[in-house]
Amino acid sequence: MMPTQVHKHPPLSTESQCPQRTFSPPRPENVNDQSEPGLAVSVVVPCKNDARYLPAALESILTQNYPLLECIVVDGGSTDGTLDLLKRYGDRIRWLSEPDRGPFDAINRGWQLSKGEILAWLNADDLWEPGAVRTVVDFFEHSPDVDVVYGIARAIDEHGRVHGDLVPRTWDLEHALRSCHHVIFQPASFMRRRILEQVGWLYPAWCHDHDLWLRIARAGGKFAKLPVRVAMDRVRSTNWGDRPENLIPGKLALTQRFFADPGLPPRLRRLQRRAISGAYALALDYLRIAKPRDWLPAARFLVQAIAVDPGNTRLIGERLMQLFRRRIKSLLSCVFKLRSKILGASITWRMMRLALPRAVSSQPPQHPPLSLSELPPEIHGTPSTLRRIPGWHTHWGVDIPSDPLLSGRLALWSSLKGPVLMRWVADLLIAVWPGNEMSRVLFLTGTYEPNELIWLSEELTKGMTVIDVGAHMGLYSMVASRLVGESGLVIALEPSAREFQRLAFHVTLNNLQNIRCIQVAASNSIGEASLRIAWEWNSGHNTLGTFFHPAVVTAREEGVRTQTIDALVATQRLERVDLVKIDVEGHELKVLAGAVETLTRFRPRVLIEVFEEALHRQRASVEAVLAFLEGYGYALYEFSDLNAELVPLSQPIGTRSRNVVALPRGSRV
Fold first, then answer.
1. Does the structure show a pLDDT above 80 at 4?
2. Which helix (H) or strand (E) holds 506?
3. How far is CA 261 from CA 193, 366, 534, 591, in A?
4. What span, in angstroms and rounded, lies between the C-alpha atoms of 228 and 167?
5. 127, 56 in Cβ contact below 8 A?
6. CA-to-CA dists, residue 574 to 424, 521, 605, angstroms
7. Mean pLDDT in the chain?
């Protein structure tokens, strides 16, 4: 696609100030002087079925009076005429359309494709003010130490009517934590690429802009506020991101992630209780606006806010004033009486944690190992499973509910206090753990990587041998065990002590006698290594390198044994290897390097995950992994986003995590 072309208009004439410095824009006669190159700006516009608003957003970008401006539209698979609209812009914009996991995924893809030194994103229904980019760039050029520049945004409705200005306050990390407030209005924000490359792209969850500001501040990034209008922020009742069922858990989760950082300095650590209390208090605002009659959830959030920090009466009182209005006097009386009882009672903080674990825990609970002598209860009525789902991702069917049963399933998930059993495909029993991302996906939707598992069911037959590298809790190993039968064999490799225990528990629970569980890390040599263990929620991110996303927290490091696949095949005396599945968070190339003899001798099918950011942290790349497999006579395939069928890998993987199938060249697909 061609670079964008930008039309020029007169510059925005204003004076801008920020704390401890004064900024003045250039003289009008020098505005369009291009004798000296300026900072390149890239803006990403995420969209899906936004044809009604998208033209106005694009025109507000393309009519900026700044020539070094790149506009990239990332469409999530629109069906409302958006694609025809984008084609009409020709080479004035760059665009792509493919299924994604939500706005954060689209923005991250666009940023990674961009070339600008200054980055921004503008939602498809928001607008930039004329001259905004020129004003922001001039400030960046005069303030090389500033990482984030933000200004005022006009609030407009779906008809474009102005409802006033959204005036941000000067950035203050401690205030942002105590109040759980985002401070910055996202459409009016611009960032240097260097700070994003330092802290990482957007976190895959709601409130990703708020999460980003906290991570930038934690990394020492500098913020500057411009007292001028920069953008228009459109408020619509149909925005998923503005719904309390998304905002409330999003705000609570980002606060907990921030304080889960073990390296947090004491001055910030001391704010933990006040910050979590503030997040619960903020939930009252969202309920007041969107669901004013939901008294029961409001009461629950109020109790949790007080329980976490009984001294946070001012903020809680402000929320009560807005929520209950005429009943405020009697309710405040109850609140202060409750506070006095809490402060005066002989209840220890530990007992408070036991009484309200969700209100105070900064990390997901670390559950003790399961024992067959004390099985958790079984949950029946799990969702239907194992059908092809084009473009499946871990947030499919979770963040944007499409199943009427999902709301009830969510309520049931929220009520869980410990591990439970659910019946899955092939009549398998599996345990799911509260506070674990993979468990949540399984519990709510009943599926995990369904396209890959269906392909597995088509490839495996009785008597085959499978090696599962990075078996985790054993989902692939258990399904493979059922498919290869008693005459077949599954070798399940998992180095993490926590995940290995869960793998072994599942094997014993389901009496899968054809699975051999081995606690070892596959690599290119035999020896020892240090395995970085992620906290419970991100347990699928354990790695022999470093985490690709800065928000993933290290729970601990474990010393583990390493072994090559070739050595394993020899010690296990395997006479055949029909399929190898590899999912090792960036260590894939080294696993392949230790499996040369196995690949050459047995020619197994290979299912392998590739993700550029994870591989890069272990001095490898997607290109190197794919070239290795092709060099050993393998043809590469992927699962189509259109019909989930296996198709030849015809385009670069890019920056997304993908499962690639490698078949011996000449094999039947």
1. no
2. helix 497-509
3. 23, 16, 12, 31
4. 9
5. yes
6. 30, 18, 16
7. 81
